[in-house]
Amino acid sequence: MNAFWKSRSVNERRLALVALGLVVLFLAYLVGGPAFRNLADLERQIEQREQDLITDTELAAHSEIVDREFAKIASEHSSKWTKQEIHDRLRQEIDRLAQQGPSGGNGPLVRIPVIPPGKLTEGGKDVREYQLTFKLAPASIGAVTEYLKRLHESPQALRVDGLELTRIPDMGQVIAQLDVTRTVVSGVADAAVAKAVTTAASTTQTNLIRNGSFEQAPKAPNVVNEWDVSGCTASPSKEFASDGSSSLAISGTQTGGAVSQKLELEAGATYEVRMDALVKIGSAIRAGVADATGKGVLEGAVTLSADGTARGYIYRFTAPGTAGTPATVRVPYIELPQGQPYEVYVDNVQLRKVSE
Q: Minimal CA–CA distance to 160: which of 140, 177, 137?
């Protein structure tokens, strides 16, 4: 064999080596090809199993979210509520959607002076419908449009059945009357309702402010029942009233001053203040919270708009002191500027404890 190989020319030897290499490669393909294919198939199967595992995990998580959201909807549409409970929940939602302007300002998007009782009807088998008809205070058409969008997107599945717009030419605003309906469906499982997760803070129904609509007749000049007046003139007025027939008119020259109500609250608890105000003269008028002596305005103070437009204001604060103990504060503490005349009207003052 060796002599045979040596007798071959260089080209023949090279050709023989190439042929041998091709044979070896062919044999390797015959033997190793299936193994490589099996290995590739195995890798694909592993990748598919991993993807299936990820998908199953995502579906399980999504299922939990769906269960929680269904529980929320179930709790929001329980047929066991009384007519008054349905009214209260719908009124709270309508009022909530009206708060906080789109730019995150202090005032509300729109103001609702009064929400009258509604009408409860049977809408069919296991279905009840409750409809409220109410008017918005004069507002821009843009604000009304945004409010309609919020009603449409409400988690309570509200339905706007009627809308009537009355234009106010001199103000460039409109008065909107809305018919809003909420549907309550029976047959919701108690277990689903029990699983409901409520994350939004709600407020109690008791208004802690005394004479917040200023309807009580004054006992003497410059005396406002339940309110403390210092360094200014204050008295009930018919000129601006967003709740009832009276408001509080506050005026002064350059002396500054303050109007407040002294209350004993629970330290560590969170409270919410709502009020309507119209500043006719002056600027830098603030509404906030002060300590019992009227010194040191605490958190949550808002500056009243000086553009001559009636607005609603809302702010929150935490009562100072050790949690659970009494805390005496002045709220709202309406702080009036020094060095300039002012005239401001306040009405519909509310203070409620917030339950988280």
A: 177
Residue 320 DSSP label: -
Same domain, 336 and 283: yes
Tokens 């300002």: give the residue: 105
Domain ranges, residue 131: 83-200
Task: Indicate the DSSP class of residue 294.
Answer: S
CA angle 61, 67, 73 (to 5 degrees): 140
Distance CA 349, CA 213 (A): 6
Q: Which segments of the chain does DSSP mark as H helices, in order?
A: 2-7, 10-76, 83-98, 141-152, 190-194
Same domain, 236 and 349: yes
Whether 53 and 87 share a structural domain:
no
Instruction: Say what the pTM is.
Output: 0.48
Residue 219 lies inside a defined structural domain of this protein: no
Give dist(CA 164, CA 144) in Å, integer.
11
- Residue 349's nearest CA partner among 279, 249, 250, 248 is 248
Q: Which of 349, 330, 335, 353 is nearest to 275 (CA)?
A: 349
Which tokens sit at 36? 């490589």
Tell me the per-residue pLDDT of 282-319, one tens digit each, with 9 for 90 and over: 988 999 999 988 876 666 788 898 888 888 888 889 99
